[in-house]
Amino acid sequence: MGCKVSDIAMGLDAAIKDGVDILSLSLGGPSLPYSIDPVAIGAFAAMQRGIFISCAAGNKGPTASTISNEAPWILTVGASTMDRSIRSTVKLGDGTEIDGETLFQPKNFKPDQLPLVLAARTDNPYCDGPFNTTNVEGKVVLCEPNGYVLDVDKGRAVKKSGGAGMIIMNAEGDAYTIMADAHVLPASHISYADGLKLKAYVNSTSNATVAIIFKGTIVGNSTRAPTVASFSSRGPSQRSGDILKPDIIGPGTNVLAAWPFELNANDTRKRPTYNIISGTSMSTPHLSGVAALLKSAHPDWSPAMIKSAILTTADKVDHQGEPIADQNRTRANLFATGAGHVNPSKAINPGLVYDISADNYASYLCAHNYTDEDIAVITQKKTRCVDYQKFGGSDLNYPSFTGYLNTAGPLSQTYNRTVTNIGEANSTYKLEVDEPNGVSVVVKPQKLQFSQVNEKASYFVTLSINASAKGSYAEGELRWVSNEHVVRSPISVFLKT
């Protein structure tokens, strides 16, 4: 299912004419030059009129450089998990319990031990059709991962062949990110690691059995959250490699959502109007809602100021105080998390913000070798790059820093940033820096002082590769800290030694 370019453009135009404050676009496509990207063009028109744009990063993770909607004037949103599960526990015949998830929670299904069949040993290893030569009647079937078949459709195939239940194991790349789908039969979606445990159990006995136990919704479980969902598209950006993308992550896994279509419901007496959905299409409206909150509290803020407030106050740790992890439960890098996980209560009062004008973005495009004609398509006005001071990501007033350093040159890169004080009138911000491994960070000045609200201050950051540089990538962060605020900017650096 896709959207016509003309429909996207017309929708954006209509929203602008209606005078909306926020645009939320839960759609994406391939990385395109901004001059032929309908979302980038429409979003620029909206941004010029003070409209904030939040867009989905895409669902092609965890592969690198799969980001959609990567234009700097767009908030690009990745997806995280939540500390809530809709649990179905698989209890093996040897007593081992494995926690999975499913939206379908039948109350009349008895948690009895039933024979377990590995689909991999049948004529239908991916559960993508009827089982013609294997008897699965009254049994639970473990279905192998296959990205071309919907998990719900696997369950339909098992049910049609008389199966009593289904267990779905993740592909290796999806690791611990599991979904709660509206299955048509008793089921449990488990992680890749737990799938290996289950297969090892089957191989250890001639009489493998399992029971599926439904436990309903559990909030505040011990599983680490938020983590980056496996499907969430990753940076670096193909079109704006000097800008950190995605910008932010927000709740996007197993989200309650209005649903206009028939579900695979087992209760035919009523038609459900809600479903549980996962994707960056779910995290995007969360961030749009946060933007609406900020716009309501600060109606005079520009879209760039709203974005800055969201990014510089984001959380970089999970609920247990540990660095946010990815789908493998290992520390996620900045191209998975962006600035971090959204924190609305902090974003409403960020202290300092980074603002960017439409002309600044046009200058950025000039620096990236877009022609005057290309830029005119994006800005919808005649543009001459000779009239602009050209600057790339190093001078675009973005609340993050991305660098490319090489021991053969360039050895260093300097950035110019300007912040606006929207916090307390008389305030002082002191510098704190966590240097990326192998990179020296010099900031001038190291203290920013303000005597009034809306006062601006500029500073320079120089990143330099040093003798201890190893590997191809390093990351750190820069913080401006006052008595009331911490204004945080991530630093990502590609290294060539």
From TrEMBL:
Parts of the chain that traverse the membrane: none
Domain Subtilisin-like protease fibronectin type-III span(s) in chain numbering: 395-493
PROSITE patterns, per database record: SUBTILASE
Database matches in Gene3D superfamilies: 2.60.40.2310, 3.50.30.30, Peptidase S8/S53 domain
Entry keyword Transit peptide: no
Residues in PA domain copies: 114-198
The Peptidase S8/S53 domain, residue ranges: 2-318
Pfam families xrefs: fn3_6, PA, Peptidase_S8
Keyword match Protease: yes
Signal peptide (from-to): none
Keywords: Hydrolase, Protease, Serine protease, Signal
GO molecular function: serine-type endopeptidase activity
BP term (GO), one: proteolysis
Protein family per UniProt: Belongs to the peptidase S8 family.
UniProt protein name: Subtilisin-like protease SDD1
Gene that specifies this protein: SDD1
